[in-house]
UniProtKB/TrEMBL annotation, chain A:
Gene3D superfamilies referenced in this protein's UniProt entry, alphabetically: MetI-like (1.10.3720.10)
Domain ABC transmembrane type-1: 90-297
Membrane-spanning ranges: 31-52, 89-113, 125-147, 176-199, 230-250, 281-301
Protein name in UniProt: Multiple sugar transport system permease protein
Organism this protein belongs to: Pseudarthrobacter enclensis
Main localization, broad class: membrane
TrEMBL record, chain B:
UniProt record similarity statement: Belongs to the binding-protein-dependent transport system permease family.
Compartment annotation: Cell membrane
Cross-referenced Pfam families: BPD_transp_1
The ABC transmembrane type-1 domain, residue ranges: 82-275
Transmembrane region(s): 22-48, 86-105, 117-140, 152-174, 195-217, 254-275
Keyword Repressor: no
Protein name stated in the entry: Multiple sugar transport system permease protein
Matches recorded under CDD domains: TM_PBP2
Gene3D superfamilies: MetI-like
Amino acid sequence: MPAPAAGTGPSRAVVDDGDVAGLGKARAMAFLAPALLLISLFLVFPALWTLYLGLTNYRLSGSAAKNPQFVGVDNYINALSDDRFFNSLGLTLLFVFGSAVIGQSALGFAIAWTMTRVRKSVRAVVEFFVLLAWIIPSSVTTFLWYAMLDRSNGTLNAMLSTGNTAWLLDYPLQSIIVFNTWVGTAFSMLLFSSALASVPPSQLESARMVGAGAWAQFRDVVFPHIRGHVLTNTLLITLWTFNTFTPYLLTAGGPDDRSNILPIFIYRLALNDGALGQGSAISLIMIIINLVIATVYLRLLKERKS
Amino acid sequence: MTAVQGSTSTTRPESRQMLRHFLGLMGKSVFTALVLAFFVIPVLWLVFAPFDAHPGLNVKLPEFTFNNFKVLLDNPTAIASLGNSLILALGSMVVVLVLGSLASYSLSRVKIPGRDLLLYTLLLLSSIITGTAAMVPTFLLMVKLGLIDSQFGVILVLSGGILPTVIFILKDFMDSTPKSYEESARLYGAKPLRILWDVVIPLARPGLATIAVWAVVQVWGNFLVPYILLRSPSKSPAAVVMYTFYTEGGQPNLALISAFSLLFSIPVVAMYFFVNRRYGFRFHGGIKS
């Protein structure tokens, strides 16, 4: 072992501020800098640029691509007077409500709840398959559902004997809601399983002793324990569902915009039709909605910590 | 049913309890069966079709063959795309591990002014500026930087997106590693980078492994970012290339797609369950695919 170096000798060492390796502020900043640079360039800058781009008539090609003009809030006025935008916003609300709040949350809870009262082996099998849907890459899961819902050879039509129902054409929004429920339920299930595990069995036991039914047990004993988790879960999956692009691979927003949720709307408007300015304006609206959800979530998290 | 109800009227409390128990058992079993059907049936295609001599879109027991994998191996685009997925996944993993451990270590050990605010902002940013919400400016930025159709560009964008979560989680791990080893290493004159490499990294290995797997899973399945930033099929990852497998007749090439899907899915599924078995599920802010 070499002798202690002159500068970092033990004499200067023992100030108990947690900086045990003698990093010092300057070096700490240097360690931090590369990460912050990457984050600023590819995460923060794009967000800020959206602000500016949304105020221009920037296009992917043509004269507005070379010399974009400043058009002020025109893009926002256009968006707010565009039926396609409101159609998309409405579809997104239905999609998020149907597949996240109702689908994933309710189904995830129901599974977690039921799995506390079945044999261990059954539980392991169910949890494995629910998780599998979550882990398989989205390009593959969308193909699996494309096959399931196919008009002439799909397994769903064969199972329900519904003839040649073209699910993706006749019920596009319902299809992507069911699909997204299928994909995402695992998270809610896991979260609620760990929440339910924290309910003291003695309390449930005494509730049962005084003859409380299943519903009363749930309302008076279980729910107060998991209330925080319900909120956390709802906010997180709302945020994720609101931002998912995967349904594009199933319906591409169609037919006739009937499953044109916001992410797909932005993609088609900005990158297919080339209206980058208009697309940025709508992206900003999306970021603001994200901000509201995330702020509520982080505030809750902080409250629970303190 | 009628028999049970009939006896209810005679001896009340016990039979009522039995009825309730029976109904509960029924409900439980029916619900479990339905849940299993819902989650298992779509996946069956992925289990059977790759080994079926005549794969269709429907789920059916296969006429067993390995021929579909031969079709896959004979398709250079398909094989190359799996390689591309690997490049993107490992590239991003290395970037976030190196930058993430440097950053989280310094945040964990030194009270830089505004540290808590910085962590809070990072977490907020990563959850609101998602790939979808920022696709327009990201695309334009990459055009301006000349990084369209560059795998390096995709790695940078993906790493930038997941790095805040990585730092947040790794800082937790770094906070919980014992500090006494660093102190003694320092007394022997080791420089901070050396302490980080020789002392801290080995101690934080479980955390780093979790993060590495998580990063790979995130990038491996990502569709949107490579879809908008890459142009050449020869550079595109599996998630994107999968949607170009059509026969001359314009029908999806099911032999190829089924075998490809299976090969594409197995690594992440295996890694996920490996990490789960080893370290258990953890809940952190933004962890999800």
